[in-house]
Automatic annotation (TrEMBL):
The species this protein was found in: Litoreibacter arenae DSM 19593
Protein residues bound to ATP: G108, S109, V110, G111, K112, T113, S114
GO terms for MF: ATP binding; UDP-N-acetylmuramoyl-tripeptide-D-alanyl-D-alanine ligase activity; UDP-N-acetylmuramoylalanyl-D-glutamyl-2,6-diaminopimelate-D-alanyl-D-alanine ligase activity
Domain Mur ligase C-terminal: 330-446
InterPro entries: Mur-like_cat_sf, Mur_ligase_C, Mur_ligase_C_dom_sf, Mur_ligase_cen, Mur_ligase_N, MurCDEF_CellWall_CoF430Synth, MurE/MurF_N, UDP-N-AcMur_synth
Record-annotated Mur ligase central domain positions: 106-292
Known catalytic reactions: D-alanyl-D-alanine + UDP-N-acetyl-alpha-D-muramoyl-L-alanyl-gamma-D-glutamyl-meso-2,6-diaminopimelate + ATP = UDP-N-acetyl-alpha-D-muramoyl-L-alanyl-gamma-D-glutamyl-meso-2,6-diaminopimeloyl-D-alanyl-D-alanine + ADP + phosphate + H(+)
The keyword Iron is assigned to this record: no
Enzyme Commission no: 6.3.2.10
Residues in Mur ligase N-terminal catalytic domain copies: 24-69
Name of the protein described by the UniProt record: UDP-N-acetylmuramoyl-tripeptide--D-alanyl-D-alanine ligase
GO cellular component terms, A-Z: cytoplasm
Summary of the function given for this chain in its UniProt record: Involved in cell wall formation. Catalyzes the final step in the synthesis of UDP-N-acetylmuramoyl-pentapeptide, the precursor of murein.
Matching Pfam families: Mur_ligase, Mur_ligase_C, Mur_ligase_M
Length: 473
């Protein structure tokens, strides 16, 4: 199915092309480019123009460029614009303008990607759904997601993130959501912000892009809720455990592989289930249902569909690592939460670990924690403070990675101290020193800490299978 014709793309960007073409997709990476894609020659660590010839050889329908690259003939299918990123933004703006889709914008310090994926699942069967396959939420990720949106999309979920002040508003104005959801405001990126209150104001900038009559959905349980409410439009709904919240979570009961939730909205009971344990997932699920209904979806169908959601790899996914093919009950219960970390998400992960039951009665609850980045002057206190987190009472041992987590390691009682290493590679080299058969293990840290190396090392100890498959108990 054609996504962009050359005429449409020229009209959208003001660029020029020497030959007609039709593109079925949009790509920024030759490694994942599909035949028929438009290749966008963005400049990042490498200049995308250096890969245009390869993209065309791999079947790209055209390339979005700001100059004719070396080795590429002038009559090649190129869309030439003044600036590639500006051109991509123009494509995103045009894609947004030509669709009748209901757009849901999602931001927050924690839970953006999980909530985006929950919405993708919950909206199943109620229209054609468009959402990025990854965490494409920055200055190029949002326009890329929009530029990939088919004309006949029914619902689009656009994740919007930030690292510095002033980043959310222009992305929100590009996406022009009908519904704007803020999952939570928490200490993150404090190197760039003076306070959590300033983070709340930046998150609330998503409302700057709301369509006329658009609906804001905010967390009712935060210290910064009054700030969000003051900056939200009149059509604002709240979710949380707080009495009086428009969408109130009444109960969330976790099992080994699921969370069963009971909530209330407009005086009516809502029951829904999620394919992972965690109260934070329950909150995201409730926010997802609020956003789905605000976008015009059927609430009952969304609640039923939501039960099919499970977290992606690195974001709370649960796996069982079989250590003996002849003894399927022998193994390690692994919570892979290694993708990223900040104080709120680490606290939630510790709560999940504390509530878990090891696969063996003699098994331990073990955490491996890597540094949380971009926390500014409070970084030492925020790391060391987890020694006093209530969940620590239930956790047997904690291994730490990185100079900042050394402060947590030193603050822990000696009975809980496992290993400390400066890098994840050091711990990944000795997985048998970290965990043993019968344990439940949680791994989490900021993306730059490469905690996925430890996940991979533990997984290689045995055969990893999905938690819901038979034979793991």
């Amino acid at each position: 199915m054609t996504l962009w014709t050359s005429d449409e793309a020229v009209a959208a960007t003001g660029g020029t092309t020497a030959t007609p073409w039709e593109a079925t997709g949009v790509s920024i990476d030759t490694r994942t480019l599909e035949p028929g894609d438009m290749f966008v020659a963005l400049k990042d660590v490498r200049d995308g123009h250096d890969f245009v010839a390869q993209a065309l050889a791999n079947g790209a329908a055209c390339a979005l460029v700001s100059r004719i690259p070396d080795g590429v003939p002038a009559d090649a299918p190129l869309l030439v614009v003044d600036d590639v990123l500006t051109g991509l933004e123009a494509l995103g703006r045009a894609a947004r303008a030509r669709t009748d889709a209901k757009i849901i914008g999602v931001t927050g310090s924690v839970g953006k990607t999980s909530t985006k994926e929950m919405l993708r699942t919950a909206l199943t069967g109620q229209g054609k759904i468009h959402a990025a396959e990854k965490s494409y939420n920055n200055h190029w990720g949002v326009p890329l997601t929009l530029a990939r949106m088919p004309k006949d999309t029914g619902f689009a979920v656009i994740e919007i993130g930030m690292n510095h002040p002033g980043e959310i508003a222009p992305l929100a104005k590009l996406a022009r959501p009908h519904v704007a959801l803020i999952t939570i405001v928490a200490p993150a990126h404090l190197e760039a912000f003076a306070s959590v209150e300033d983070i709340a104001r930046e998150k609330a900038a998503i409302f700057d892009g709301l369509e006329d009559g658009g609906i804001a959905i905010i967390n009712a349980d935060l210290d910064t809720t009054p700030i969000l409410r003051d900056l939200a439009p009149a059509a604002c709904q709240t979710f949380g455990t707080t009495e009086g919240a428009d969408w109130q979570l009444l109960d969330a009961v976790t099992s080994a592989s699921a969370t069963s939730c009971r909530a209330r909205h407009a005086g009516e009971a809502i029951l829904f289930k999620l394919g992972a344990p965690g109260r934070h997932f329950a909150m995201n699920g409730l926010a997802c249902l609020a956003a789905a209904q605000a976008a015009g979806a059927d609430l009952g169908r969304a609640a039923v569909a939501l039960s099919d959601w499970t977290p992606p790899s690195g974001r709370g996914q649960r796996r069982f690592i079989h250590l003996d093919a002849q003894m399927p009950e022998q193994g390690i219960d692994l919570f892979d939460d290694a993708y990223n970390a900040n104080p709120a998400s680490v606290g939630a992960a510790l709560d999940v670990l504390a509530a878990a039951t090891p696969p063996d009665p003699a098994g331990r609850k073990v955490a491996i924690l890597g540094d949380m980045k971009e926390l500014g002057p409070t970084e030492i206190a925020l790391h060391a403070g987890f020694a006093r987190h209530p969940a620590m009472d239930e956790i047997t041992q904690v291994h730490c990675v990185g100079p900042l987590m050394k402060h947590l390691y030193d603050a822990l009682p000696s009975s809980k101290q496992g290993l400390w290493a400066a890098t994840s590679t050091e711990l990944a080299d000795s997985p048998l020193a970290l965990v043993r058969a019968g344990d439940v293990l949680m791994i989490k840290g900021s993306l730059s800490m490469k905690m996925a190396q430890i996940v991979d090392a533990v997984a290689k100890l045995g055969q990893s299978v999905a938690d819901n498959q038979e034979g793991h108990r």
